Amino acid sequence: MSVSHYFAQAGMVKPADIDVSPQEAHAHSVRIDGSFYKGCIFGDACWLLKPFSRDSFFKHNSDELLMFIGSDPNDPENLNAEIELWLENDKLTFNTTSIVFVPAGAAHGRISVKNVTKPVIHYTCHMTADTYEELPAAATAPQGTYAGNRVEKYAPVDGRLPSAPPGFLTRLLWIDGKKLKGAPYMEAVWFLTTNDTGPENHTHDFDEFIGFLGSDPERPGELGAEIEVLIDGETYSFTKSCLIYVPRGVSHSPILVPKMDRPIIHFSGGNGGDYIREGTDQF
């Protein structure tokens, strides 16, 4: 299979219409779904630019992760906005960079984005589906059931941190089944500089998604950097915001950053509860 089949760059997959008001509160970045790569992990990245709200409740047949990242790399934990999101009968309210875990079948919605002083980077992924489908739902779970389904900070339970050259990245978020029972694995960082080293080539026993997002809300499709990624023995280079689907067992890495004009967001995750690399002695 050509390596290009793994990648969806900005502009390759048509975004769905988003039911937000006003429409200018939202700007699309990049999407990957079954129309591009059948069987992939659905992913969609966008910018939240202005306050807006949605009143409806809905559910999905797949576990979902919702990531909200503040767009200032010099103040990475600050969302520069306030998010209210109902998960069943629990209202999650936060103003820091966060991941929310929404289990399959859980009613959620009634989202409100308030007090936006800087644009917010938002990513949605469905761990066991290649399409986005909203099904009508009503909140039925007892209050308190999902009150703790939000994670902030990069703090794995086992304390392990991946190695990186000094000054190359800022760690943002980590979630897995040890951090939050039932949750899939996902992590996010800022890439701040160029880099000519990367993780060793490896595989996983789970499907993985990998993302690289530009940090200019006025040009959401532009990466502002060049990334080189080795997958299945082939190297691919790109300069657009990009989502990658890596099926389980497919070798990948290193990830190199030969050029950078401005910092970018990098994240990865998978439909396994914990992160384990096969083919190396590293976790």
Question: How far apart are the first and last residues' alpha carbons, in Å?
Answer: 27 Å
Q: Give the biggest sheet.
A: 6 strands, antiparallel
- Give the class from helix and strand content and strand pairing: mainly beta
Number of helices: 0
> What is the CATH class?
Mainly Beta
Q: Rg to the nearest angstrom?
A: 18 Å
Can you say what the CATH homologous superfamily is? Jelly Rolls
What average pLDDT do the residues reach? 91
What's the number of domains? 1
Unreliable stretches (pLDDT < 50, length at least 5) are none
**Percent of residues in helical segments?**
under 10%
- The appropriate CATH architecture is Sandwich
Report on the structure:
The chain has no helices and 21 strands. With 283 residues, the protein is mainly β. It has one domain: Jelly Rolls. The chain has a 6-stranded antiparallel β-sheet with strand order 1-19-16-21-15-14, with no helix packed on it. The protein is globular. The two termini are 27 Å apart.
In short:
The protein has 283 residues and is mainly beta. The protein contains no helices and 21 strands. The protein has one domain (3-270): Jelly Rolls.
